[in-house]
Amino acid sequence: MELEEFKEMYNSSVAQAPVLSADVKDIVTGKSHGPLAKLEKNLVQLLYILPLFIIAFGGIVSLVLGFGEMARNPILVLVFIVFVAEILFSVFSYFTVKKMQDNMGDVKGALIHKIATLKRFFKWHLIIYIGLFLLMPLYLELNIHFQFTPNGVGKINVFIRLAWYVLIFFPLYKIKQEQLKQNFTWYLDELNGVLKQAE
Amino acid sequence: MYTDNPEDREDLYQEIVLQAWKGYKNFRAEAKFSTWLYQVALNTAITGFKKIKRSPLQHTADGDVPEIADINDDAGYPAQLHTAIAQLNEIEKAIVMLYLDSKPYEEMQDILGIATGALRVKMTRIKEKLRTITKNN
C-alpha cells in the first residue's frame, strides 16, 4: 500500500483522540512525567537535602571540635566549600532544566535552543569544577606555606603531597563528570541525533 | 506514531495537554493556533517524553506472536504500513503525520523549522523508504 492510499483511508476515518482515564482538570493541575521533569524533581530534593546536611555536619563537627577549631582546619573548610559548590551547581542545573522544558517554537529551533543551553551548561560546569579542583590544592598549599595547618602536613614531601592532590581531586572530578553524564549527556546525544535527522 | 501501545499513547496525550496548558500564556497569535499546538505536541513527543519500554508485539492467548501483516491497529488501519511508519526516525514520523493531516508544506515548515525544499526531498525519500520496508515485510 502506498502512502497516498493510506492518507485517503486515514482521512476518511474518524480521527479519535485516545480515551483518557484521567480528568483534563487533573492533568493540567498535575505534574509532568517527562525525563526533564523527573530531573527537576530530583534537583529540588537535593536542594532541600544538601543545606540540611551541611547544617547537621557543621553542627556535629563544631560540637566535637569546637567552632574555632573547625574554622581553622583547612580540610574541613574545603569540605564546606565542596558542599556549597554542590548547592550552587544544583541551583544552576535546576534553572538549566527549567529552561529546557520550554516546548515552544518550531521543532528544529527548539532542538537548537536546547542543545545550545546544554552545551553552555557543560562549558560552565567544566570551568567551575576545573577551577575549584585547582584552587583547592592551592588553598592547602598556601595553608602549609603560612603554617596554618595544625597537624604537620607541611613536613610531608611536596611531591607526595602533589600525588595526594591528584589521587583525591582527580577522582572527585571524574565522579562529577559521571554524574553529569548520567543526568544530561544522554539527553544531549539524543537531541543531537534528532537534529541530525532534521538537517 | 510516537508510541506503540495504548498506555504510552495516553501518557503522551496527557503530557501534551499539560505542556499546551503550561505554554498557552506564551502563545502570541503570530501563528495559527493549530500550528502552535502541533509545535507543542511534536516538541513534547520528540524531546520531552520518555517512552516506557513495553513490547510492541503482544502474545496471543495460545502464546504465539501474531504475524505483522495479520494485525490491524486499533484505528483499523492496515498494520503493514503502520508498522513501516513506526520504523521511521522521529523527524520522518513528524513529516508523515503532518502529511496525513493534509498540512501544506508552508505550514510544515512553520511547525518543523525545515525549509519547504528540504521537506519535499525528505517526503520523496520517506515514500521510497516506506515502499522498501513494506516490500521487505
Low-confidence stretches of chain B: 52-72
Helix content of chain B: 55-70%
For the largest beta-sheet of chain B, the strand count, sense and barrel status come to:
none
- Ranges of chain A with pLDDT <50 over ≥5 residues? none
Q: Could you tell me the number of beta strands of chain B?
A: 0
Strand content of chain A: under 5%
What is the CA-atom radius of gyration of chain A, in angstroms?
25 Å
Shape field of chain B: flat
Order of helices and strands of chain B: HHHHHH
Mean pLDDT of chain B: 76
SS-based class of chain A: mainly alpha
Q: What is the number of helices of chain A?
A: 7
The outline of chain A comes out as elongated
Number of helices of chain B: 6
Largest sheet entry of chain A:
none
- How many domains of chain A? The number is 1
The level of helicity of chain A is over 70%
What distinguishing features does this structure have?
heterodimer, A: 199 residues, mainly alpha, 7 helices, 80% helix, B: 137 residues, 6 helices
Can you tell me about this structure?
The complex is a heterodimer of chains A (199) and B (137). Chain A has helices spanning 3-12, 24-29, 35-65, 67-72, 74-100, 107-145, 158-198. Chain A is mainly α. Chain A has one domain (34-97, 104-194). Chain A is elongated and about 85 Å long. The mean pLDDT of chain A is 80. Chain B has one domain (6-136). Chain B contains six helices and no strands. The two termini of chain B are 19 Å apart. Mean pLDDT of chain B is 76; it is low at 52-72. In chain B, helix 1 crosses helix 2 and helix 2 (33-47) packs across helix 5. Chain B has 137 residues and is mainly alpha-helical. Classes of the chains: A mainly alpha (199), B mainly alpha (137). Chains A and B meet through helix 1, helix 2, helix 6 and helix 7 of A and helix 1, helix 2, helix 4, helix 5 and helix 6 of B.
